[in-house]
Sequence to fold (462 residues):
Amino acid sequence: MATTTTKPESKPPHIALFPCAGMGHLIPFLRLAAMLDSRGCTVTFITVQPTVTAAESDHLSDFFTLYPHIRRLEFQLLPYKKSKFTNEDPFFIQMESICSSVHVLYPLLQSLSPSLSAIIADLPVTSRIIHLASDLSISIYILTTTSARFFSVMNHLPQLADNNNNTRCNNGHIEIPGLGPMDVSNIPPAMLNPDHFFAVGITSNVSSLSKVNGILINTFTSFEPEAIDALKNNSGIAPILPIGPFECFNTPKAPNNLEWLDEQRPESVLFISFGSRTALSKDQITELANGLEKSRCKFLWALKGSKVDKEDKEKIENILGKSFIDRTMNQGKVVKEWVNQEQILAHPSVGGFLSHCGWNSVIEAAKLGVPILAWPQHGDQKVNAEVVENGGLGTWIRDWGWGTEKMVDSNEIAEKIKEFMVGGNLRVRAKEMKVKAQEAREINGSSEGLLRRMLESLKNKE
Ligand code: UDP
Ligand code: UDP
Fold:
């Protein structure tokens, strides 16, 4: 008689998530934590203390109220010692401070029960955590919070320098395998300066990527087919796992400004935001305000007066002038507090998004089918704007340059906004992208399939 052997029940994997500084990093990590939780994993979320912004600490406390069974592992940073690479950007100072405190985290991770199966860490800490794999016998995954396209550029950075440490460039273009020639002016200048801390950090982190178990990207195959293919064909790095767009999680807070949006015509409103840590110059804010007024388009503007929210105290009236607010009372609305961007983009009255093209904003617009008028300001944003254009999700006026490069005049802004808000083919293509994003998230979709297989492999390792 045949004996039946019962396979022991495999335990759900225990995964720790480790984000770096700023909302652009925290939000995708929180979303991923909620997704892992809803797929049966045990989740520990590492919270860096203190945070740079009030938005980070507010979001963390809301999140743990909503998900009481997700464990919070407080990671207190050591007193910060300025290094030779530091500039004055509080987010980079925080990033550096996190990197130099990482060793404090080891004993905390080691003492977790049940023991960890894997850690998903932010790209900027890669080189610092790589030996966790052998020290703690766990899998290491890296989540990069940018596009597959910009990630390809970062990944190729060490090969871009010639023997004299200058960038190999051909007629103003660089070659990234699989992506064709890319305009060198789209690469953040700091990245092309091998002595700059930004380039130094990226080079050291991407050099460790062959040793990790996988690289997670909040994107999906039909949005960035070229870049994802090129990365998959690169035998020098770990498997690429495009598992986006990440699902959003419910927030208990009252939604902002939705009543005002409810009163507007379908697809009539332009939403304007430059993300969580970019403030336009005072003069550029004035030109944008005048451009909006001249365009006569309906608008909802999430205004920022300074980089860090705790310092952003000036009243809207003082920045824009009371007469602007009075004159545009029936045309638009300006807010200065944190808004729930996903809810706004999902509202039927919103027909366009003037965006700096931070990657989270781009992927949210793709997921919700809202066309983008791209105005990249710094960092990865021009390369992300290329993704927007290539994917048919929006349009980018290259002449506007980087944020601080030139003053864009109100008449020019008004003209482009009017053209953009006509919608037409762009809106059709954005809606097609929304369908593709939904398909990627379906049970057998490209992104969901990869995520499930990754979790299965972790379960079977137990
Ligand atoms: N965001 C938001 N409300 C705000 C400002 C930003 O919900 O008032 C969110 C936005 O939806 C996105 C993130 O914050 O998820 C910003 O990330 P992104 O990569 O777009 O830009 P960054 O802030 O990193 O420049
Ligand atoms: N980055 C890194 N090491 C550094 C600095 C940056 O790995 O020392 C990566 C990081 O993953 C980030 C990307 O470079 O997402 C682009 O940086 P940027 O400042 O444009 O974006 P943000 O920090 O707003 O995501």
